């Protein structure tokens, strides 16, 4: 049984597929859902533009509120975080520090077009370094 589920989220079709599966599993298991959206890691540099970081974070939060939050209405515990970070390392760190039971990742390519490139650098790093099981969700457009 999963009590804490972490989804590595991007505002993309693959990210949306992963999020939908994570929501489904969260409902089935009565779990807490943690959504992590990594912003451009270059915004972590000391010389990064603070205004650009604030604008980027605000845009991500507004997009979350408009597009994603309505999908989460029935869930009891949801947390959304967006911060500038290396996505793979941030996901692995969150999973470890918060004792996550499952990480949900999306594939960037469609399952009807198989390729070894379905998992990118971020996905491969998470697969190698994660402290818990990982569910890899292929992007699928039902239309």
Question: Could you give the topology of this structure?
Answer:
Blueprint: E1 4-8, H1 13-29, E2 32-39, H2 50-68, E3 78-84, H3 87-97, E4 102-106, H4 121-129, E5 134-137
Parallel strand pairs: 1-2, 1-4, 2-3, 4-5
Helix pairs in contact: 3-4
In short:
The protein is α/β, with parallel strands linked by helices and 143 residues long.
* Tally of distinct domains: 1
> What is the succession of H and E elements?
EHEHEHEHE
The largest pleated sheet is described as: 5 strands, parallel
Low-confidence stretches: none
Rg, Cα atoms, Å? 15 Å
CATH topology: Rossmann fold
For the structure shown, list the relevant keywords.
39% helix, Rossmann fold, 143 residues, alpha/beta
Give an overview in words:
With 143 residues, this protein is of the alpha/beta class. It has a single domain (4-137), classed as Rossmann fold. The chain contains four helices and five strands; from the N terminus they run E-H-E-H-E-H-E-H-E. A five-stranded parallel β-sheet has the order 3-2-1-4-5, with helices on both faces. Helix 3 (87-97) runs parallel beside helix 4 (121-129). The longest helix is centred in the middle third of the chain and has 19 residues, at 50-68. It is globular and about 45 Å long. It starts with a strand and ends in a 6-residue tail after the last strand.
